[in-house]
Amino acid sequence: MTNADAPSQKCLDPWASSKPRVITLAELQPGDMLLHRGNNKPVRAAIKVATRSPYTHASMYLGDGCVAEATWPQGVRTSKLEVPKGQHVAVFRSQCGFDAERLQILKAFVNELVQQQTQYDLKVCKVWKMKKAKLAHELKQLEVLEAYFTRGEKPEAYGADGYFCSALVVACYFTVGILGESMACVDRPELHLPEDLGHNVDFGHIVGYLAAEGYAIPSDDPFRNNPCFDSMF
Question: What is the per-residue pLDDT across 194-206, written as a single tens digit (0 to 9) for each?
């Protein structure tokens, strides 16, 4: 049989190579943002009901199998990264990159919050208030930006009452300099829920899904058809 006679080997989905895939822990890089699916813990269950999103928690990967996260009731902490059996963690990577200097700043920031026993900000449980505040903020963004650039009025600081999970992630991006001070006029930490981060390119693009070998990504996952980081950069 000649090559011309051979059966066609064309991929049924020509875009499959650009879509997220199941990856291993070894493929993670320090500075990756992780989105975790819901569990039965009260706060995360409340977020799932209020947002109708499968993603109810966010964390930052520090390397060596550890993450920085804000959880109830522990507050800000570092812990071992675990993927529940039969589940996955969505992995996102910033196009700006986390070099050695940024990683050092990130770890120092997290360690300081841990040493201060920074609490968990329970305002995240009032999702309806967050959504109302986010809409109000979006309506006055131009006004806030104008005040920043013309009068030097800095955005209100966040963190005095602690952090919830996705707010901590946003704060990390500001601390390492991926987001500049003026971006606090737009990306307020307290207005971002976990899934929001995955839809905002300010926080990177999906790398893949950390899961066991052979894991089938749910067909309704909100990121399964997104172009992945490696296909873009």
Answer: 999 999 999 999 9
Residue 14 covered by a domain: no
pTM across the whole model: 0.88
Is the Cα dihedral 21, 26, 30, 34 positive or negative?
Answer: positive
Residue 20 · residue 217 · CB < 8 Å: yes
Residue 16 within any structural domain of the chain: no
114-157 pLDDT tens trace:
999 999 999 888 888 888 888 888 888 888 889 989 999 988 88
Residue range of the domain that includes 141: 23-212
